[in-house]
């Protein structure tokens, strides 16, 4: 996933900081808009993981800091739920003018309530998804405790949420009290996907039930099981993103992946490792793969490591070569299974290695041949295995020419 740092102006003229997450090396098939939670900003980790899943399906996602939060200008204490909705509508207008109007809205927590409110004002939207969203935003007041009384008496008070301090004014609470979700949800007229965890201690599960009951079809509910409100466990946000990406494809009329613009004159393999960890996206021949390192080496174990891919390349080439040779000879080969293992060994421990010093890369290859074949045919296929193109490449002199792209 690649990204662009952007900014646009709110209705009040404040500069709002944004980031557009884009599919790797291709034109987006659709655009989405993500509204984060009350205490979060656009760099919230769960948003990153969800957007990566969407980008892998060709969906670009704009996320931004609401007025007064993160890197955006403005005074948060002067904002309200209604102004957050205005920021969302303005963000959608920015997308439409600079890129393409959003067809998908996603909102987490109070951001979920905001996207439900904003959807009717963004004609391009075809689908909406909420994550841990409240049915009645005014319930937020119960988390303020005694601070709520101070706000009502003094007109404002500072609160600390998720380790951050905010100045809340009475207008914010008054605005939440005036929000009515029933009618908005009933007339949503868009496909709706609701994510919620039964263990959410911030916004209880019954909120999801009320949203679901109020909505008309098409509507879906997905349980996040053991997830907390902020989807702190990386696996929960990855799961939500994967399900959301598959669901969105049904309602956004996305083109089939092979039909997405692909430059056949540029057949390079593309690999991109982002800012966090070793997870690497790969595009090879129009196909999407994922590489990573195991947890023990600081990775997330979301895909094979680079050496696994090297061994896989040799294994695939070997079995394909055996298939082609057997077909050409008319031999009854039912299947060829190749098992490989790569490791580094001391040269002195390698019986067949030419060098006797240092370490060498050793790939052990075991071939299983299925079919009614004679012993001589099996032995010939074993010899042919060494003739597969990748095997020959690994044994030949390889030059890698590297240049830095401007």
Shape: elongated
Total DSSP E strands? 15
Named at the architecture level, the CATH assignment of the largest domain is: 3-Layer(aba) Sandwich
CATH fold title of the largest domain: Rossmann fold
The low-confidence runs, each spanning 5 or more residues with pLDDT under 50, are none
Q: Which structural class do you get from the secondary structure elements? A: alpha/beta
Number of helices: 11
- Radius of gyration over alpha carbons? 27 Å
Q: Spell out the helices and strands N to C.
A: EEEHEHEHEHEEHHEHEHEEEHEEHH
Q: Describe it for me?
A:
The protein has eleven helices and 15 strands. By secondary structure, the protein is of the alpha/beta class. The chain has two domains: 2-137 and 180-259, Rossmann fold (3-Layer(aba) Sandwich), CATH 3.40.50; 306-395, GMP Synthetase, Chain A, domain 3. A hairpin with a 2-residue loop joins strand 7 (156-161) and strand 8 (164-169).
């Amino acid at each position: 996933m690649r990204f662009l740092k952007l900014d646009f102006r709110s209705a009040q003229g404040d500069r709002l900081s944004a980031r557009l997450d884009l599919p790797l090396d291709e034109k987006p098939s659709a655009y989405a808009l993500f509204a984060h939670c009350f205490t979060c900003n656009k760099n919230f980790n769960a948003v990153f993981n969800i957007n990566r899943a969407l980008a892998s399906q060709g969906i670009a996602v704009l996320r931004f800091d609401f007025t007064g939060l993160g890197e955006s200008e403005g005074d948060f204490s002067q904002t309200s739920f209604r102004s957050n909705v205005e920021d969302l509508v303005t963000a959608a207008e920015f997308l439409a003018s600079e890129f393409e109007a959003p067809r998908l809205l996603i909102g987490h927590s109070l951001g979920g309530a905001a996207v439900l409110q904003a959807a009717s004002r963004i004609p391009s939207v075809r689908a909406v998804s909420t994550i841990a969203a409240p049915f009645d935003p005014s319930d937020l007041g119960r988390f303020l405790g005694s601070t709520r009384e101070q706000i009502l008496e003094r007109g404002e008070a500072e609160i600390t949420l998720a380790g951050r301090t905010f100045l809340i004014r009475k207008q914010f609470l008054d605005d939440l009290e005036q929000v009515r979700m029933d009618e908005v949800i009933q007339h949503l007229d868009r496909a709706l996907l609701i994510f919620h965890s039964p263990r959410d201690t911030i916004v209880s599960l019954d909120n999801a039930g009320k949203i679901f009951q109020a909505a008309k079809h098409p509507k879906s509910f997905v349980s996040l099981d053991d997830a907390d409100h902020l989807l702190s466990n990386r696996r929960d946000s990855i799961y939500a993103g994967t399900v959301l990406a598959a669901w969105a494809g049904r309602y956004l009329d996305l083109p089939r992946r092979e039909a997405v613009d692909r430059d056949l004159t540029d057949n390079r393999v593309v690999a991109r490792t982002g800012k966090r960890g070793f997870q690497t996206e790969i595009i090879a021949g129009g196909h999407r793969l994922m590489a990573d390192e195991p947890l023990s080496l600081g990775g997330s174990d979301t895909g094979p490591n680079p050496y696994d891919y090297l061994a896989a390349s040799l294994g695939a080439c070997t079995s394909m070569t055996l298939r082609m040779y057997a077909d050409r000879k008319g031999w009854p080969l039912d299947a060829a299974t190749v098992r490989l293992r790569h490791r580094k060994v001391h040269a002195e421990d390698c019986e067949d290695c030419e060098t006797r010093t240092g370490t060498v890369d050793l790939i052990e290859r075991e071939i299983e041949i299925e079919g009614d074949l004679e012993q001589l045919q099996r032995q010939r296929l074993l010899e042919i295995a060494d003739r597969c193109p990748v095997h020959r490449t690994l044994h030949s002199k390889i030059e890698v020419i590297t240049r830095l792209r401007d």
